């Protein structure tokens, strides 16, 4: 007996786990981007967080509407068109999110430039809260060195080493800040990938169910039998007093006799 592998269980696992992981990674990346003031645009992790439940809800709604009726109705056709458009839009958005997340990781020069521009924007606007939050989070001073645009800002009462003297931090913020920017971008990318995995698993699961239902309906379908009216034919032959075999032998003899009479004439 051949061994058959049931693929529905792994598909269910990929669907549930993929959707859950995508949601968790998106939420974590969103929170880290806001808390650590990373240069990653806020809409990227926010979209990665929201795209997972929206995709799952769209797929479930499509399945529910398709099960309401086996025949094509204007409502079902309308929803099929809308769901198809939504699925395409979600795929495009997930692709954009994944691409932007990778753009904030590679190449390294662009990543360093983004971090420098973000810190410079805080420094020029004298946003002490932002720079101090980063320094306190990583226990560091300045961006590329201990004296590089560090808080407290240099003035009459503070020198370049004010952060080092007051806070006692002995490293710059560039390395840890850069590391968290990379890990957060990878979270966003992974969230988009897991959305794709959950979507593919749902489509494969739905296709598997449809093929199984078609097979079962074909197995249970009754075989049609050809109705042969032998009884009627035999009954008619018995009423006329002539059997079927007699008719088959009588016809050629009649034709032969008819031809002989024609030749004699």
Alpha carbon gyration radius: 39 Å
Count of spatially separate domains: 1
Helix content: over 70%
What is the H/E order?
A: HHHHHHHHH
Largest sheet: number of strands, sense, barrel closure:
none
Protein name: Tetraspanin Tsp3
GO cellular component, one term: membrane
InterPro entries: Tetraspanin_EC2_sf
Keywords: Membrane, Transmembrane, Transmembrane helix
Q: Could you explain how this protein is built, in words?
A:
With 265 residues, the chain is mostly helical. It has one domain. It contains nine helices and no strands. It has helices at residues 8-36, 43-68, 74-103, 108-124, 128-138, 162-167, 174-220, 230-240, 244-264. The longest helix is centred in the C-terminal third of the chain and has 47 residues, at 174-220.
Write the layout of secondary structure elements.
Layout: H1 8-36, H2 43-68, H3 74-103, H4 108-124, H5 128-138, H6 162-167, H7 174-220, H8 230-240, H9 244-264
Helix pairs in contact: 1-2, 1-7, 2-3, 2-7, 3-7
List descriptors.
single chain, 265 residues, mainly alpha, elongated, disordered N terminus, Tetraspanin_EC2_sf, transmembrane, membrane
